[in-house]
Amino acid sequence: MNQEPIIETHNLSKIYGNQLAVNDLTFSIQEGEIFGFLGPNGSGKTTALLMLLGLTEPTKGWARVAGFDSTKEAIKVKKIVGYIPENIGFYDDMNAIQNLQFIARLNNMPDSVSSIKIEEALESVRLKEEAEKKVGAYSRGMRQRLGLAEIFIKEPRIAFLDEPTLGLDPEGTNWIIDYIQSLSRDKNITILLSSHDLKQVQKISDRIGIMLKGRMIAVGSIEKLAKEKLGVDDKEISLDDIYMKYFQEEAV
């Protein structure tokens, strides 16, 4: 991994009215990492992601993504980042190929190039047989896989994935987690993974960040956090146990 972080924030904060959504968020992620971003609903994770993407401006502090200021250089950030939100959106009256063609054109990719990449992407995410079906008829799992196909085509340096396995059955969840891991390994894409599925986060993450009430209360590897909060030096310790220990102590 490079010494310079590919994602970095300093005192990043966001206030909506009287609500402090993100409070002095300072952390960094190295290129090639899979970073598990954890916290209960309302902890500030999604707001933090939106600030990193340049989709909302911070009240205070700053964020840099691949050296670009997320607020001042938001367009440059968007060119090198892929994003799958919790409720991923596609044009329901278009099929998978048409949706991916539209996305490729938005990224200034010539049709002669995108047509090959789209075929490869749909094969990669197991949607080749469903490629001409309108996306409005897709299940949630199929839509999530189509989102990953979008990442495959764009080949961003960084992918922000917000609850990519929510609502999926165990088989679908395992497949998507394995695919995310392959994107990191085979294409060197840095992954920021926000999820409530702690077992799957533990399976693939290099490090974990835990947010609560707008603050980042812990950052580190499973081993580091286990030793810090549970006093054990065991990489096999359950992330659920670590998470609950932090949560219980901070909630008091």
Low-confidence stretches: none
Number of helices: 9
CATH architecture of the largest domain: 3-Layer(aba) Sandwich
Find the CATH superfamily of the largest domain.
P-loop containing nucleotide triphosphate hydrolases
Sequence of strands across the biggest β-sheet: 6-7-8-3-9-10
- Principal-axes geometry comes out as globular
By DSSP, the count of extended strands is 10
Count of individual domains: 2
Approximately how much beta-strand content do the residues carry?
Answer: 15-25%
Which characteristics define this entry?
single chain, 252 residues, alpha/beta, Rossmann fold, 2 domains, six-stranded mixed β-sheet, four-stranded antiparallel β-sheet, 9 helices, 41% helix
Secondary structure elements and pairings:
Elements: E1 7-16, E2 19-29, E3 34-38, H1 45-53, E4 60-65, E5 68-69, H2 74-80, E6 81-84, H3 96-106, H4 111-124, H5 140-154, E7 158-162, H6 170-187, E8 190-194, H7 198-204, E9 207-212, E10 215-220, H8 222-230, H9 239-251
Parallel strand pairs: 3-8, 3-9, 6-7, 7-8
Antiparallel strand pairs: 1-2, 1-4, 4-5, 9-10
Helix pairs in contact: 3-4, 3-5, 4-5, 5-6, 8-9
Description:
The protein has 252 residues and is of the alpha/beta class. It folds into two domains: 1-77 and 163-215, Rossmann fold (3-Layer(aba) Sandwich), CATH 3.40.50.300; 87-157, no CATH class. 41% of the residues lie in helices and 24% in strands. The chain has nine helices and ten strands. The strands form two sheets. Strands 6-7-8-3-9-10 form a six-stranded mixed beta sheet, sandwiched between helices. A hairpin with a 2-residue loop joins strand 1 and strand 2. The chain is globular. It starts with 6 loop residues before the first strand and ends with a helix. The model has no long low-confidence stretch (mean pLDDT 92).
